[in-house]
Amino acid sequence: MVNRKELRPESSPQAGFGAQLRSCRENRGWKQEDLGEEMGYSSTHVSAVETGRKMATLRFSRSADRALGTGDLFERKYREIKHGVLLEGFPEYVGHEGRAVEIRLYEIGIIPGLLQTPEYARVLADSAVGRGAITADYAAERVAVVAERQKALERRHPPMIFAVMDESCLRRPIGGSAVMRAQFDRLIEFAERPNTVLQVAPYGLGERRPFDLPVYLLTLADRSMMCYAESQTQGHLDRETTSVLPVLTAYHQLQAEALCQAASVELIEELRRGT
Q: Which CATH number fits domain 9-82: 3.40.190.10, 1.10.260.40, 3.30.310.260, 3.40.50.410?
C-alpha cells in the first residue's frame, strides 16, 4: 500500500472514471494484475487509467464492464467523458438516435442539433466558452457531436424525421445575419427531403402548446420507442411504455396545432428575406 496513490474523483470526469474502476476492482478483492489479466491489459495500463494518467478507450471500458460484471457502467461513463459536458442521459440517447428508424423532436429557443449548420453550432459552443461554462476543448467536442449525429441523415436508409420547432427557434438571432441566413437555407433544404416533415409551433398556440421543454422520441427497428426530455440541468431517457405513450400522444396533438410544412417553410423564407 506504500505506492497507493490517493485519487481525487471530483477533480475531473477522467479522475472519476479511474476512482470508480479502482473501487469496483477492490470490491472484488482483485489487484491491478488480476483485473488486467481478466481484461487483456497490463497492470500498468490499468494503473494509468485508475490514476487518471491515461484516458480509457471504448474497448477498455467495455472490457472493464465484462470483467467486473458492471453492465454498461464504464461504457456509459466513457461516452459521457467523450461527449464532454453534455447533459446526463444525452450520450446514451445519441447512441440510440443513430439507429432509429423514426425520430420525432420538439425544440424551444434554438435550432435542433440535427438541423444546425456547423457555423450555428460553433457560435453556440463558443458562447458557452465565453461564459466560462465549458472549455474550448469541450466546445470542439460539442460541435463534433452535432456533426456526428447528422450523419444519420445521410445513411443508406435514413430515418423518417418529424421536427417541430417553437417559433422562438427562428426568432432568436444567433451569430448574426449571415449565420442565420445560412441556417434558414438549411431548414428549407431539410424540408425538401422525402423523409422529413418540418413544422413550426407559432407563438399563437399559447396555452395549447403541450410541451414547455425540448422533447425527443425515437422509434427503433423493432418498433420499440423511447423518449428523451431535458431541463436546463438534466436529461432523462425513458423506455417505459406507460411513460412514452402519453408523450407520443401529446406530440401528435402538437403536430395538429402547429403550422403545416408549407406554411412553416413560408415563414422561414419570410424571415430569411429579413436577415
A: 1.10.260.40
